[in-house]
Amino acid sequence: MENLSAKELRDKIAAGRISSVEATEEIFKNIDERETAIGAYINTYRDRALEKAAEVDKRIAAGKPVGELAGVPVAIKDNMCTVFGPTTCASKILENFHAPYNATFVEKLLSADAVIVGKTNMDEFAMGSSTENSGLKQTVNPWDRSRVPGGSSGGSAAAVAGGLCFAALGSDTGGSIRQPASFCGVVGLKPTYGRVSRFGLVAYGSSLDQIGPITHTVADSALMMNVIAGHDPADSTSVDEVVAPVCDYLEKVDEPIDKLKIAIVPEFSAGADQQVQKALTDAVDIYRGLGAEVIEINMPHLDYAIAAYYVIATAEASSNLARYDGVHYGHRSENAADYIEVYSKSRAEAFGKEVKRRIMLGTYTLSSGYYDAYYLKALKVRNLIRGDFTNAFEKCEAILMPVSPTTAFKIGEKINDPLKMYLSDIYTIAANLAGVPGISIPCGFDENDLPIGLQILSPAFTEDKLLRIARMYEKENDWHTRKPTVTN
Amino acid sequence: MSNEVQYKVVVGLEIHVQLCTRSKMFCGCAVKFGQPPNSRVCPVCLGMPGVLPVMNKQAFEYAVLVALALNCEIADFTKWDRKSYYYPDLPKNYQISQYDLPLSTNGFIEIPLEQGRTKRVGIIRAHLEEDAGKNLHPAGNFSQVDLNRTGTPLLEIVTEPDMNSGAEVRALAVELQRMVRYLSVSEADMQKGQMRFEPNINLVITKDGAEYKTPIAEIKNLNSFRALERSIDYEIQRQLDEFLETGKTMDTAGKSTRGWDDDREATFLQREKEEAPDYRYFPEPDLVPVELTKEWLDDIRAHLCELPITKQMRYVNEYKLSDYDAGVLTAERSTAEFFEQAIDAGGEPKRVCNLLTQVGLKLANEKGCGLAELGLAPENVAELAKMIAVGQVSATAGNTIMQEMLKTGKSPQLMAEELDLVQKSDACELETIVDQVLTENTKAVDDVKSGGKKSKKALGFLLGQVMQKTKGRANPKVVSGILAKKLG
Prior knowledge:
The structure holds two protein chains of two kinds.
Chain A: H1 6-14, H2 20-38, E1 41-44, H3 46-61, E2 73-77, H4 104-111, E3 115-120, H5 154-161, E4 167-172, H6 178-184, E5 187-190, E6 210-215, H7 218-228, E7 261-264, H8 266-269, H9 274-289, E8 293-296, H10 305-320, H11 339-350, H12 353-366, H13 372-395, E9 398-402, H14 418-423, H15 429-434, E10 438-445, E11 451-457, H16 463-475
Helix pairs in contact in A: 2-3, 5-6, 7-16, 10-12, 10-13
Chain B: E1 6-18, H1 57-69, E2 73-74, E3 77-78, E4 81-84, E5 94-97, E6 104-112, E7 118-130, E8 134-136, E9 144-146, E10 153-159, H2 166-182, E11 195-207, E12 210-213, E13 217-220, H3 225-246, E14 256-261, E15 266-271, E16 282-283, E17 290-291, H4 294-301, H5 308-318, H6 323-330, H7 333-344, H8 349-367, H9 378-389, H10 395-408, H11 412-418, H12 427-440, H13 442-450, H14 453-469, H15 476-487
Parallel strand pairs in B: 13-14
Antiparallel strand pairs in B: 1-10, 1-11, 2-6, 3-17, 4-5, 4-16, 6-7, 7-10, 8-9, 11-12, 11-13, 14-15
Helix pairs in contact in B: 2-3, 5-6, 7-9, 8-9, 8-10, 9-10, 12-14, 12-15, 13-14, 14-15
């Protein structure tokens, strides 16, 4: 059963050939066997999940209609608000925080009859590229337990790769879905900014955050998009469907694109490891073999993406995280003498090092006298990067590049060198700045048997096409069918 | 060179007006005063993790309507910004406000001065923001926070420092209050904090031919028009005394914040030498900018009405009412509208005014309701005014009829007859009575005829006798005519 994709499982459950309870029990058996080793989850909800599974099974047996993800065990990242269990953001400051409402996309998952297995580990407040910044636990890469799963959605990627759920949701502010997906050998999609409601996603960088699926296959990604995409009146930045209609992403996912025109950015991609570059070149050849025209383009401003990102994201974060002050909810210091100390001590005690670093960076760049030099300049760079994409997409339908310069690195390797860690997102950040969708799909393994990811980017609101382009490649390979072996 | 000390008072205002929309600025909670603490809150106004604001369109329209009434330039593109500061009554620790692109700028308000004159006070800007909650400090070593008010739509209006006395500031405050009430966008009750004024005041002193400016003081917590006016008068004297004693000027001392002690009727120092706080404004990424189309603006403009000051001036110029009467009739929109309906129904303005101010409003006050709610028909008031004008009833009788009309709802004609208050203007009938009086008072008749000092007094006496005999119903003009003829 574990080798089934989410879509295959869904079809079998719907056909009555497997029950959701069986599938859910199988997942919890895997969790029992492997979770101690992988550490993907902050909390799991066995009883809840089995109850929902039984309910779905009952409805199917009775011939009643069920949702698009009926009975499929899925995981969500722990920065997604649910009325059940805590929503911790892997932070001590929210360790015991219980949200009083469900995020819009959680509601959508539930009404699609998905079975939510648990909430996954992450870098604290989604700040990081290795999940090492979790304030609560360590997640490892199922392919090599001495390595990181990537981040910040490392728990979700490891849970999918390790067979601890059939699909998961992650959030991507600068690569947090795509990079861990590539490190763990699974498919990760960051949709266009505005395609999926952010209501109920604990904000990190509000103008960059976007929710997306982490799955075994491209079709699963399409299936998840069918459930979560669409306008939400509670999120003013979610796009009006009259302007950008959603579609059935699954319906045509197997149809290749005729006369596909793709672009590569050789100068920019040259910074990646040899093996990563080789995998990219091989992938490009596959597309050529499928009849695609490949052009080389230059995107001159991508070099400044990391700098712009760390100004904009941290500025927004410094403001978004101001509310965790010990006054209304979350950790409150017991050593505070007055309300000012309630703020300073609660925050000093409960925020991790990287979160503090980013809050300080953001506070600094927004301060009077520095705003123009940093924040305003970063916004200008962001516009130039958007321009690079606009120009590029006049010449092609998709851009291919690496997801990350390396495959999964060792735990502890970069944690004390923030700049080195930040570079891990060099290829993914631009899509967030420009708001365009990007997908990471497995495209090979390196000499250490670690998965390599291929990143494909397409114009805003063309996820349907992006998925079809990704699927064209997936059909020619079996990388996505390989599974790591893990036991506790 | 004169040794005399002369000074000019300079006052500018920062004004906050709560808008009486059905729901809050960025969430669906009801805007309601005087509810149990924290009973009008939801995850959004509580600033819970993961929530997003959605703009209240009605609040925006109300704000634009006031800006139009303030003769402001209305921006066709306006955006939201975050203003950061930590305070327990501000759950997100930032306030959604407007910084560099407010919805309106550069207007003015006309305020009434004595003797029918008006003064124009410049408006620098008016923008929309969300109100904070309230910190409560009960006895004990803790404070409480009530967040019912959090997120109430708040219009901030900043005036030019164009006012030169406490009386002018009060006049502006009263004018603004009746303006927003006319527009039905705020209840503007100062006691309830629905309208709050923070004056910035200093003096320009001329001494020994040189000019000095005293340090600016900002006065807070003023919750009545009286406090507003008194605090400025107090501050004028205090700043003058301080200057004469210490020679402090705005170059040698910084701006200070002072509170108002209602019991002692004095301002007191709260914070001194305040540096401009760094609010780290930046564009609110969770909201989209507002683009105000011409059609939308026209729709809003259609809700404008004739403003109270315009009405007041018109009543003085067109209807020749006194300043005072015009002020009373325009204090509330419903009163003014009632008055105008009675005029439209043919009532003579001055007489309608007298009926309304001497009887109608007095009764409305006693009942604690508006004039329009008394159940009085404007047509009946017009009819009564006409009856007085043609001498069918006396002015005194008119007031009595008005009172009785309010009780019974009957027409003035019917009331006059029922109460037997119709004036006797029939010369023949009155002549008989006059003859009778003349026979009975020969001494007085002689006095009149003899002319000189006693003549006038005696004539008055005879007239009085006629009125007594007719129980006040004789038309004095007709009686005087008969007397003149008989004794002439």
